[in-house]
Specification:
mainly alpha
């Protein structure tokens, strides 16, 4: 990821937060490990659906992506405020952030490639510049690194602002996504088979990013111990709100007198729906509001767990440290290792074959990242 989610020491605004936010490193490392897991096993028929991206409810696999934006928001505000404090003027700080975001987007475009294939020069020439760009950017590039870079650029004007400004920005951004989804965008993403929210996904990925920045404020103002209750409370509030948004789907199915109240509620977030899906369904493919609000609350709960284990109990998982402090390297390396091993594991492989194949892939990935850590080599933009 960008430097803001790399191995950066925290500069707290109060004495209640340690100079090193161990919980954030561990949270990020867990998120990386979770990504390694679901990216490998999600293609196999023998794996339970809860570990796959189904785009109709919030599976375990779907919780991982928003965790990255939560970590980005937390560390983005941390790094930006630290640079502002040291800088003589704000422009160099903005310029630094802009170039790093653009660099991350460029790396993402190189890794994911643009969409569109052309058999000959004549085919390319007849397609036209506009259509080439449309095919190139409508789907394939919109994956993790590009989304993080674009979302970070989008929230840049408010990342150092007050809570009220950031929350207002988040609500306005989410509202715009809902409006555009109702107007055309939901159908467009589905029809074009876009990925992880598509070109406008940043509008709702702003939600976990801003929530992460608010978690940073909480940790620096109250410290780890006093932050636990608010983290859990607001996590529950956001998860309830996300679930409530998903219930809008069922509320539109039939008149209230024809169904009881409980039967009009959506299935729990981690269960497949038994009703037609729409823009209110929890769906990572379209980056739906219900999904990202719920996942933001879940991120708060998971982060609270690491506050307890890491900041309060001072327990550290070495593997999470290795992954969490070199996230960009881990992302690039895991993808190469996955592409090398996955072809040797067919879709219908049994669990007895999937398990050692995953262990090999995970072990090689860890070996490379751990080696970089030992050499004090960190991928930064």
């Amino acid at each position: 990821m960008t430097e803001e989610i790399q191995n950066l020491p925290a500069t707290p605004v109060s004495k209640s937060l340690d100079p090193r936010v161990l919980s954030l490193d561990q949270f990020r490392g867990y998120t990386m490990a979770g990504m390694f897991l679901v990216n490998f096993i999600g293609e196999f028929a023998a794996i339970p659906e809860i570990f796959k991206h189904n785009n109709t409810y919030c599976s375990y696999a779907d919780t991982i992506f928003p965790h990255f934006f939560f970590a980005v928001g937390f560390a983005y505000r941390l790094a930006f405020l630290k640079r502002l404090k040291r800088a003589e003027s704000s422009w160099p700080v903005y310029r630094h952030a802009i170039w790093r975001c653009l660099g991350l987007i460029l790396i993402g475009l190189i890794i994911y490639h643009l969409g569109g294939r052309y058999r000959s020069w004549e085919d390319l020439r007849e397609t036209g510049v506009g259509e080439v760009l449309y095919r190139g950017f409508r789907s394939l590039p919109w994956q993790a690194l590009v989304h993080i870079g674009v979302t970070s650029l989008f929230v840049l004007p408010v990342i150092h602002r007050s809570k009220a400004v950031r929350i207002s920005f988040m609500v306005a951004s989410a509202g715009l996504h809902v409006f555009l989804s109702h107007l055309f965008y939901y159908d467009w993403v589905i029809e074009n088979r876009s990925i992880d929210g598509g070109p406008l996904g940043f509008l709702t990925y702003t939600v976990p990013t801003i929530v992460g920045s608010l978690a940073y404020d909480l940790m620096t103002s109250k410290g780890p111990k006093r932050s636990l209750s608010p983290l859990l409370l607001w996590g529950a509030v956001l998860m309830t709100m996300g679930y409530a948004f998903s219930c809008i789907t069922t509320l539109q199915l039939s008149p209230e007198e024809e169904m009881g109240f409980l039967s009009r509620l959506a299935n729990p977030p981690f269960m497949p729906p038994t009703y037609p899906t729409d823009m209110w369904t929890m769906n990572q493919q379209v980056g739906s509001l219900s999904y990202l609000v719920f996942a933001s609350g879940f991120s708060l709960w998971v982060y609270a767990l690491f506050v307890i284990v890491s900041d309060l109990k001072r327990f550290e998982v070495g593997m999470f440290r290795t992954f969490g402090t070199n996230a960009l390297a881990g992302y690039i390396i895991h993808d190469m290792v996955l592409n090398a091993i996955h072809p040797l594991a067919p879709y219908d492989s049994p669990l007895t074959y999937i398990a050692p194949a995953f262990a090999l892939y995970f072990g090689i990935t860890y070996f490379f990242i751990r080696h970089l850590e030992k050499k004090n080599i960190y991928f930064k933009l």
